[in-house]
Amino acid sequence: MKTSECIQKSEQYLLHTYNRAPVVWERGEGVRLYDADGKEYLDFAAGIAVYALGYGNPAYREALKDQIDKIIHTSNLYYNVPQAEAAEKLVKASGMSKVFFTNSGTEAIEGAIKAARKYAYLRDGSTDHEIIAMRQSFHGRSLGALSVTGNDHYQEPFKPLIGGIRFADFNDLDSVKAQVTDKTCAIILETVQGEGGIFPGTREFLEGIRKLCDERDILMILDEIQCGMGRTGSMFAWQEYGVKPDIMTCAKALGCGIPVGAFVLNEKTAEHSLVPGDHGTTYGGNPLACRAVSTVFDLFESLEIVEHVRKITPYLEQKLEGLVQKYDCFSGRRGKGLMQGLMVEGRPVGEIVGNALKNGLVIISAENNVLRLVPPLIIKEKDVDEMAEKLEASL
Ligand SMILES: *Cc1c(COP(=O)(O)O)cnc(C)c1O
């Protein structure tokens, strides 16, 4: 199918919920994508922070093929080996206690909210608990996740959302404290805000939230869906802060392309929340998805992905700082590891994104004034150089 025909057909038959760039992806190799006309692109978006290992990793591909030949799906009425292995690896990497696998990030958030409410319900039997969430946050599009997403534009047409949600300012502990009541059961936040514009949490803020939660028996939920899985230079971004959540959510790079998410509970929360009958999913954590997760953890270890992210980060940051110095349209850089944002001033960020695509660089935006760089975690210095050249040519 030709590019024009694919675009025409897609617009005819797909519900128009995305303003898509006029590109049809056909295949990928390493950090490169190829469109249906055979044009090559350097990918600094990774399918929105998903393809951590890059495209076409041979061991990943072979593991999935092998799993397809064995069994793809069984249901959670029975056990399967990939799920047991994936859960063990996720627990060991996080130092947490129990895992529930989902199909997406938004479902991981739903599960986290339910676990938190159930924990509080078991404690005092009441059914009017509150959750504190952050402004400029993003947690997903299903109604529960949307309810804790601090974006009026996303929420407005779909009200009423779930009740008992209060919003505070990210990185402002006093504004969080001001929202705490006797009914607060959880505080949910991204360790590094992604969609909202790449804002890393400060150490004081995360430590302050942890302390507040400990004092009041409130559960701390960290959304690591975008910033987790090595992206910021540790397996999970919170591991650099010296705080540990009660509940963590994962998705995006967890399966590196196979749709899978998870919510992970610490021991206290696992022992006093969801029990049989409380929660379920048909597909969640099926053998194919979990084989992907399990293989991803193995490859992170054998390829020393986290160490590589730590090594390459200063090089990328230095390049980006150089661009900020050189061009007036960039007013600053924010980010951690391979999750970086360039603040754009005086021109639409979409224009730069569009020009970059024409120049063979895939890059995305966050909010409406941030250029977001979330490349595959396997990028090398020469890829960073090429990105900078192509980006400069796109300004
Ligand atoms: C992408 C994202 C989600 C939603 O994940 P989906 O898989 O798109 O449902 C939730 N939280 C954060 C921080 C995200 O970046």
Task: Please give a quick description of this structure.
39% of the residues lie in helices and 19% in strands. It is α/β, with parallel strands linked by helices and 395 residues long. The longest helix is centred in the last third of the chain and has 22 residues.
What does it look like?
This protein is of the alpha/beta class. It is built from 14 helices and 17 strands. Strand 1 (25-29) and strand 2 form a beta hairpin. Helix 3 (58-70) packs antiparallel against helix 11 (287-302), helix 4 packs across helix 11 (287-302) and helix 12 (305-326) packs parallel to helix 14. The longest helix has 22 residues, at 305-326. It is globular and about 60 Å long. The two termini are 33 Å apart. The mean pLDDT is 98. It binds pyridoxal-5'-phosphate. The site of pyridoxal-5'-phosphate has 15 residues, from helix 5.
- Please estimate the helix content: 25-40%
Strand count:
17
Number of helices: 14
Over the alpha carbons, how many angstroms does the gyration radius reach? 21 Å
- The side-by-side strand order for the widest beta sheet comes to 4-12-11-10-7-5-6
Largest sheet: 7 strands, mixed
Helix/strand-derived category reads alpha/beta
Ions, cofactors and other bound molecules = pyridoxal-5'-phosphate
Beta-strand content estimate: 15-25%
**Poorly predicted parts:** none
| Tertiary shape | globular
Task: Look at the structure and give the mean pLDDT.
Answer: 98
Query: How far apart are the termini?
Result: 33 Å
Helices and strands in order:
Blueprint: H1 3-13, E1 25-29, E2 32-35, E3 40-43, H2 46-49, H3 58-70, H4 81-94, E4 98-102, H5 105-124, E5 130-134, H6 143-147, H7 152-155, E6 165-168, H8 173-177, E7 184-190, E8 192-193, E9 199-200, H9 203-216, E10 219-223, E11 247-250, E12 261-265, H10 267-271, H11 287-302, H12 305-326, E13 330-336, E14 339-344, H13 349-358, E15 361-362, E16 364-366, E17 370-373, H14 381-393
Parallel strand pairs: 3-15, 5-6, 5-7, 7-10, 10-11
Antiparallel strand pairs: 1-2, 2-3, 4-12, 8-9, 11-12, 13-14, 14-17, 16-17
Helix pairs in contact: 3-11, 4-11, 12-14
Pyridoxal-5'-phosphate (PLP) binds near residues 106, 109, 195, 251 and 252.
